[in-house]
Amino acid sequence: QQQVKQSPQSLIVQKGGISIINCAYENTAFDYFPWYQQFPGKGPALLIAIRPDVSEKKEGRFTISFNKSAKQFSLHIMDSQPGDSATYFCAALDNYGQNFVFGPGTRLSVLP
Amino acid sequence: DTAVSQTPKYLVTQMGNDKSIKCEQNLGHDTMYWYKQDSKKFLKIMFSYNNKELIINETVPNRFSPKSPDKAHLNLHINSLELGDSAVYFCASSERGTGGAGAFFGQGTRLTVV
To answer: Rounded to an integer, what distance in angstroms lies between the CA atom of residue A111 and that of residue A14?
Structure first.
């Protein structure tokens, strides 16, 4: 129940395209869902996050879509750029705030 | 100013040695974590502390011992290092509860046991 599933494992997108990464969870105690971006040799950096009382959140080219009934959420990167090439992790935080559970990550490559 | 800083960034050591990794956060957060990232990039929680109190202790060998002298510091001591301990270790901090804004990570410590 503590698992967060993430797909695809890797993704190749042309510059200007849309990158979509999907995540799913089981634990209904999760109530905060951040996405992290990690470049090689760096720590994960918070990108965007959503709470389950909204269905969508947009920040610049990054959008989270959230489906509470299906327990699924996804990250959309519009107008993908080569600089977006990184590993992306979805995560979930339980409502006691004790632990961020991470998905296994998606390696995104944006071709110039 | 670095929000979450951990030292050292690289650590190469022989099997059987004891080593420590230090972590400090200047964000005023009340919760700190240690995560282990393996070669497949999977991030797994090891420990979580809230206001110096151990909250989460996942199935981690007791060779790993966290210590939190105050809520801004969480150090990780590893005894009798083994080859399988080689990984990147990340310290992170957050404000506990749903009012938080996510966890902030340090730059990581790449531990290589030879």
So the answer is: 5
What is the DSSP code string of A40-74? TTS--EEEEEE-TT-SEEEETTEEEEEETTTTEEE
B window 50-109, beta carbon within 8 A of A: 50, 55-56, 90, 92, 94-98, 100-108
* pLDDT tens, N- to C-terminus, chain A (112 residues): 568 999 999 999 999 999 999 999 998 888 899 999 999 999 999 999 999 889 999 999 999 999 999 999 999 999 999 999 999 999 998 766 678 899 999 999 999 9
Question: By the CB < 8 Å criterion, does A45 face chain B?
Answer: yes
Cα–Cα nearest to A71, from A29, A36, A28? A28
Q: Using DSSP bridges, classify how beta strands B109-113 and B10-13 pair: parallel, antiparallel or unpaired.
A: parallel
Q: Which residues of A touch B102 (CB under 8 A)?
A: 32, 34, 46, 49, 100
Is A97 an 8 Å CB contact of chain B?
yes
